Amino acid sequence: MSKLIITAALTGAEVTREQQPNLPITPDEIADAAHECFLAGASIVHVHARDDSGKPTQNAETYQIIKDRIEERCSIIFQPSTGGAVWHKFEERVGPLKTNPEMATLSTGTCNFGKDVFFNPLGHIEKFASEMKERGIKPEIEVFERGMIANAMRLVKKGLLDSPIHFDLVMGVPGAIPGDVRDLVYLVCSLPSDSTWTVAGIGRFELPLAVHAIAMGGHVRVGFEDNIYYAKGEPASSNAQLVSRIARIATELGREIATPDEARQILGIGAR
Question: What pTM does this model have?
Fold first, then answer.
């Protein structure tokens, strides 16, 4: 079994300071949180940028500032979101790719997202995939429903996505696939045999899905984007606190934690 890759999803596009007072928003806060998560055992940091007012932004310049400040602090893999907020247009969402990150997310389908719709028509998916391939960016395929795995395989057939693929199974979003363990098993059994995968459980699903993923040989994403609590009714003090718990559990289960360079090797994106 490979070493465990822990991803820290620091901010997201929906969480506010009113909901989680410790939410990092400014580039320096995000970079500091990334460094704390690196020290706690994370090897990837998933980033949604915010503007000066705290509103989600896909502005390339803002992402570049965040990327530079994270790289000044540590060697963690910088993985920006191309999903942005549900109301961002395609032209905005592609912005972070201009920073030429090692990885970026690529959602391969449309789904209900709470009271909204996360809109990803095939044409946009193909444009994202083409842009990432041209820039040498490793896509993390974001899966909210089983059909999104099939859509990723269509990208492979069209030559827009290379195997092996790395998937992020985002589970428990209201309106998309639930976060039950049987749903995790169903998705994992639907993946290509040579792929790697991470699970991101939303809210109360974060911890149980993470524990099962560790035992199943998958990888884990935690952080304020997905869950703002450490326990029921107890807000987490930081993203690093959530990372530390996963690292501790994995160690107790005999699963070693991957460093950023080891994660690069596992994912096939090369050490820097």
Answer: 0.97
Q: Please report which helix (H) or strand (E) contains residue 202, including its range.
A: none
In the block, residue with structure tokens 């942005």: 84
- Confidence bin at 1 (pLDDT 50/70/90): confident
Domains of the chain: 6-267 (3.20.20.70)
| Tally of CB atoms within 10 A around 225 | 24
Nearest to 196 by CA among 246, 266, 135, 248: 266
Phi, psi for 62 (deg, rounded to 5) = -65, -45
- What residues have CB less than 8 Å from 127, skipping those under 6 apart? 90, 94
**CB burial string 239-269: b at 16+ within 10 A, e below:** bbbbbbbbbebbeeeebebbbbebbbebbeb
